[in-house]
Amino acid sequence: MATEPTERVRDFVRETVIPVEEREHGELHRPYDGPGIHPRERALRAELQDAGRDAGLATPQLPVEWGGLGLTALEQAAVFEAAGYSLFGPIALNIAAPDEGNMHLLLHAASPEQRERWLRPLAAGRIHSAFGMTEPPPGTGSDPRALTARAERVPGGWRLSGEKWFITGAREAGLVIVLARTSGEPGDAGGATMFLVPGDADGLTVERDVHTLDAGLYGGHSLLRFDGCFVPDDGVLGDVDEGFRAAQVRLAPARLTHCMRWLGLAGRAQDLALAHVTARRGFGARLADLGLAQQHIADTEIDLAASRALIRDAARLLDAGQDAGTASSIAKTFVAEAVGRIVDRSVQLAGGQGVSEELLLSRYWREVRPFRIYDGSSETHRWSIARRAVRAHEEGRRHDLAR
Amino acid sequence: MATEPTERVRDFVRETVIPVEEREHGELHRPYDGPGIHPRERALRAELQDAGRDAGLATPQLPVEWGGLGLTALEQAAVFEAAGYSLFGPIALNIAAPDEGNMHLLLHAASPEQRERWLRPLAAGRIHSAFGMTEPPPGTGSDPRALTARAERVPGGWRLSGEKWFITGAREAGLVIVLARTSGEPGDAGGATMFLVPGDADGLTVERDVHTLDAGLYGGHSLLRFDGCFVPDDGVLGDVDEGFRAAQVRLAPARLTHCMRWLGLAGRAQDLALAHVTARRGFGARLADLGLAQQHIADTEIDLAASRALIRDAARLLDAGQDAGTASSIAKTFVAEAVGRIVDRSVQLAGGQGVSEELLLSRYWREVRPFRIYDGSSETHRWSIARRAVRAHEEGRRHDLAR
Amino acid sequence: MATEPTERVRDFVRETVIPVEEREHGELHRPYDGPGIHPRERALRAELQDAGRDAGLATPQLPVEWGGLGLTALEQAAVFEAAGYSLFGPIALNIAAPDEGNMHLLLHAASPEQRERWLRPLAAGRIHSAFGMTEPPPGTGSDPRALTARAERVPGGWRLSGEKWFITGAREAGLVIVLARTSGEPGDAGGATMFLVPGDADGLTVERDVHTLDAGLYGGHSLLRFDGCFVPDDGVLGDVDEGFRAAQVRLAPARLTHCMRWLGLAGRAQDLALAHVTARRGFGARLADLGLAQQHIADTEIDLAASRALIRDAARLLDAGQDAGTASSIAKTFVAEAVGRIVDRSVQLAGGQGVSEELLLSRYWREVRPFRIYDGSSETHRWSIARRAVRAHEEGRRHDLAR
Amino acid sequence: MATEPTERVRDFVRETVIPVEEREHGELHRPYDGPGIHPRERALRAELQDAGRDAGLATPQLPVEWGGLGLTALEQAAVFEAAGYSLFGPIALNIAAPDEGNMHLLLHAASPEQRERWLRPLAAGRIHSAFGMTEPPPGTGSDPRALTARAERVPGGWRLSGEKWFITGAREAGLVIVLARTSGEPGDAGGATMFLVPGDADGLTVERDVHTLDAGLYGGHSLLRFDGCFVPDDGVLGDVDEGFRAAQVRLAPARLTHCMRWLGLAGRAQDLALAHVTARRGFGARLADLGLAQQHIADTEIDLAASRALIRDAARLLDAGQDAGTASSIAKTFVAEAVGRIVDRSVQLAGGQGVSEELLLSRYWREVRPFRIYDGSSETHRWSIARRAVRAHEEGRRHDLAR
């Protein structure tokens, strides 16, 4: 399965990206009190994306007509894992969240004009984008139906009002994709619409940053406010009141590409740990040969293999045009937890250095923690997985899961 | 992937096998003080195998010329899982351990004459067989090099001496495949040879049974003694002193088929638990809708999916003729533990009935426990997985694992 | 804390009880198709109780005036653990379930006449008893309010009707303590009354056995039917309609004594595993010195210590006359799971012999499994622990837990 | 057990310390490129210690003649837990690591003159101190015998050479307690001596900081270099060549006080999580009432109770003058892992806010991670616990553990 692009990405990451990552101690996002994005962060992104473009490896998941390599989901699994081997790999290949998911959404749900206007510059890396769904309490978080942001009908378009937070990449974004309620009340299962809002639209303000444990996503996470922000009719993505359905287009694949990238980083963590335990001794032996270290090493190998296998199974369903909702939900839950365990074990294997900045491991440890919460928390996914299992049982469809 | 044979097996198991399993409370093996096998156990096997043959589903994994359906390893994964959905399914399809592994070994390592003599009746279910490797301490257990049974060169053949225990199906076996030392000393990595010994050979005695938690394997487990038992030269399987290599032929595939069968039973356990929690109420709700039950249900769905995915990945390697040693070792370790967790959760979900004989769950709970020990304990596999990871790191081959 | 009685019990168990346990392969209860109890089981109990009485160690938890040693709860913790070191120890000391809990209940909730009539012979081991609470679905299981058995008022007493199952020791019981509804409907939080019913009362029938994984409790578990069984007024234990409150008297202490006994058995399992791994070799070392074995050994030491510490903390509360409800609920949940893990690890450390009858471990493994379900399942306890934590938070009483 | 000082500490922490902690976002240590300690960090410590002194709660563990309250170890357990309820509590009470452990060491191992010179100002908070044991590889880390720092005999004293890293509080320390080899070679079990070195001694240099995940310890962690640093004979703590023995005086109690403080923080994390889930809704219910949240809440209650119980059991041994080595090793291993689990669950319960700086949880999550590594990693403790269990088995002393 190690297709040729995978090996090219692997070499590129090792030779070009990792030296930059080490130079920067793995920090992409820098807190910044000024407007927009910290100049060093902006320059770093440009440096990485230039390198990816020069290597001919940018946006490999896109069809050839959009400048990509036209990879299947199964091929993406290998390529994205290879890119994720460095925290900076996905940025260099222009396949980082949330841009990669947004490109996927535009490709499959946007009109030709919308694609030309927004997908073209995104694919070229000329702009970056944000996806605005999560809201401060009591708005939508794990439960999408709690959506409170509103869009009111006005001549020629809509006026958006409400708050969104934890919005990644909102600063200096060219495009913000926003979910707002065009009918119904918070708690209703329908009534949402998706809007394409230029990042510099009037009535859209980045209020402040929401500082988090991670620093690997461009622009960090922000609190946005919409104050009667006008969006013309051609800014509606998909159909009015069908925003939750449109979100589904993005959901399962975006979950999986998250898994692919983080799996790459987990593999790196294991390699850093192996480098440590093969180089050091204690209690009369090489650390790598002590049984309690072997336990950690083996558990990680098992977690890596199971994560990879679950991702591939879901990718095969996507490639076959089958429903991958349950499979991607299972994969997301398992991989998010496995990646957390893996990086935690690697930190442990590296001892004091594992919690220091001598190695990149403590940075990775911080980066992967939110993954068990973002994109549906483990608890929300478990609840949904259990309900589907019960329903399948009641409808006599349990064996379908063993396809 | 649900090939047509899979659905036929599924129907056959549901309609024909499960009623027998329920009638017999899931007990195949009956302790017996007489010689040979308990008559009721013998009759039960015949009943099941007749049904499998009548359904045209016997030995589906064998090539067509040996009476099978010529399934690939990947196809076997689905079919064996469907068979394993009942404890009695594998017996009915003549794909139970150890016969299935022995047939595989004969198919790939035996001479045409040996195949005709032993594989033919095994494939037809006319005889059953045993595989004699494990020895009482200090002989071979987890560590194969500890092998102590000896074969001495005599004119025209060899004379075997030594003890083997935990030998499944030795009672009334037509064939016992035995590993004995033809050179070297206990502790040496080589010097083993594999012998095909008729079950009624002089000098081969079933000393006594070793009673264990499980009762799902035909004939139970025995302690065997070889007292200068003569085996002619044509009873050597493969080459002299190459027995460990010959054992490898059997090892990885047999591990995987174990995983496939037990995965089927784990799926059944989840279904029995779902039937329980959807039918009962407590604390003002249906049990299936209580959060703490949902946690168990979801965890099991995840374990089932990850087990299936790991098995398939290893099967694809086998089908591609690639080395599946590490993949099958990882799959075995994960699946054995996952199956244990799954059945344990199902017991818990069923409450008092889970530990009673009202349901089959407590029987399953006993049956799957040894799987974490047989076929290489979890600890032995972890040790080996860790060593390979360290070696791959040292040789710069870590990314090969992400094929 | 190793008070003198603890050491006497320890010696008694080692010298007198364990030889009997090994002789009988740890099986106390024998399935029996005849009426009453299997003669061998009856004889075995008598043999053990005679030995305990001869050693002057019977019912040590009772006050001196009832023939005991007047131990505090904290002292019981050590003595019961020492007794539990053999499956047969609690029977020998007449502190096995359910008699021990029933004696406690009678001591604290019965009238002087009731105590004289029932506690006297129970303390002397002349009779044994049962506790009838659990019912077949949809009756009371985890959720006590589901109680369906009814007692109707008749002149001079009550008439009981209903079914109870998983009733331990009901066969040949001298006394059956039964919970039945004297007012209200299934689902109501009150309205239960506790009755003392002679085991040979008219209208009380042992319908059949409910066979379970365990065989360590005298008389096994039965399904009982009450068909208008008459109980005179002096057979009411405590007050009418206050049966749930009376049950509380038994609940917390009985949970704890369960924990104490099973903790003893868990310690034995670790000792059997240590005996195995210190006597055998593999991979060039003693098994006890391999890292993956050390992990199991250490994890068990930690589980043993934490279990013991939790039991003692709850016992101290009982001795201080404080509410031990939450503490005993936490202890029960932790210890039941810890004991399960411990015995499972011991089985794993003993390899093939662990799942065989060569050692007592596979017997122990079966015996301890129901403990996570009986006496409130882990899920029910967690639900209750969480609710109390939330309530304490709301009422600003969280720090009280850190007493 | 909630002695009066515990309640005073609890009130003090809630009213005085937590407001400061919240104001400073839980950050005590600030990276600083200048010499010494960041002025804001120094001022913050002074503010906190002044408040603790004003409240009459400083150094409560010390004997009255040293300005403390003369608490027993068991009383300390409650008081230190109450102090640890805020990250800044231990600093305010002058019971933070490493000063608290150093004071204990001086109290029990120093000469009267040494105590007067060093313990007096430490107890008064006039100076702070460091403990220099860990060395860069291949020096001492988990394995103390690897000690490489050397002290050479010179007239009137010793000259120290070598490097130490991860030395907490070395910047501006009044006193650095250092372990160096006075005889033997790295790998030898003896030959170490403990020295009391003024922080401003010639030949002692703070080379650079070792940045780590945590920021709660004053002065952070540094790399120190000793270049022939002279220490007069009266700077030897305890006896020459007996440094490992002297270190034991500090080891078990310091491990336990770590546990006490971190347990306090874990309780706080649970309270922050409870505040979150009782205030927010989702899926039609209060989060606190969802089953999957209840699981986390209950698991944390169990972990808190078991941690507390293990700490107390070890404290009782210390108070009784008994060997608490194994008990404190078990407590440390369990508590460090339990605290990690607890804070991780609290983060998860708080969702997106859990990984943000909106709450203190993400800070706590970083702070507690190193505890599984510092003070003996979980792996080193497990290895040692297992070896002691095996030895106790061989010497027939296993039941002593059940004291």
Description of the structure:
- 4 copies of one chain form a homotetramer.
- Chain A is an alpha+beta fold and 403 residues long.
- Chain A folds into 3 domains: 4-96, Butyryl-Coa Dehydrogenase, subunit A, domain 1; 129-241, Butyryl-CoA Dehydrogenase, subunit A, domain 2; 244-402, Butyryl-CoA Dehydrogenase, subunit A, domain 3, CATH 1.20.140.
- The first copy, chain A, contains 12 helices and 10 strands.
- Chain A has a 4-stranded mixed sheet. In chain A, strands 2-3-7-6 form a 4-stranded antiparallel sheet, with no helix packed on it. In chain A, strands 9-10 form a two-stranded antiparallel sheet.
- In chain A, strand 2 and strand 3 (157-168) form a beta hairpin.
- In chain A, helix 3 crosses helix 7 (243-279) and helix 7 runs antiparallel to helix 8 (291-319).
- Chain A starts with a helix and ends in a 9-residue tail after the last helix.
- At the C-D interface, helix 3, helix 7, helix 8, helix 9 and helix 12 of C face helix 3, helix 7, helix 8, helix 9 and helix 12 of D.
List key phrases describing it.
homotetramer; 403 residues; alpha+beta; Butyryl-Coa Dehydrogenase, subunit A, domain 1; Butyryl-CoA Dehydrogenase, subunit A, domain 2; Butyryl-CoA Dehydrogenase, subunit A, domain 3; 3 domains; 4-stranded mixed beta sheet; 4-stranded antiparallel beta sheet; 12 helices
